[in-house]
Fold this sequence. Notes:
By secondary structure, this protein is an all-alpha fold. The chain has one domain: ACP-like (Non-ribosomal Peptide Synthetase Peptidyl Carrier Protein, Chain A). It is about 45% helix and about 0% strand. It is built from 3 helices and no strands. It is globular, with a radius of gyration of 12 Å.
Amino acid sequence: MDWDPRFEELLRAYLPFLTVEDELTPDTELRDAGLDSLATVELLGALEAAYDVKFLDEALNLETFATPASLWGALRSMTAASAG
């Protein structure tokens, strides 16, 4: 998956079980990598600030924050919508 380096850097900051050597793949289970409910809220705020978007209510669900691919897909659709 072609996400930008800033996305991976932000995401990795909230994944305490993922070491620097561990690859972050599109289907990495974020909960298994240590993303808990508090970290999800903090990550949400960090992504909104970094990408100048607002997550819509329908994007605030477990599926969106399940994997890097699902989260990046939601973020990309929001950045495209705000740019369009």
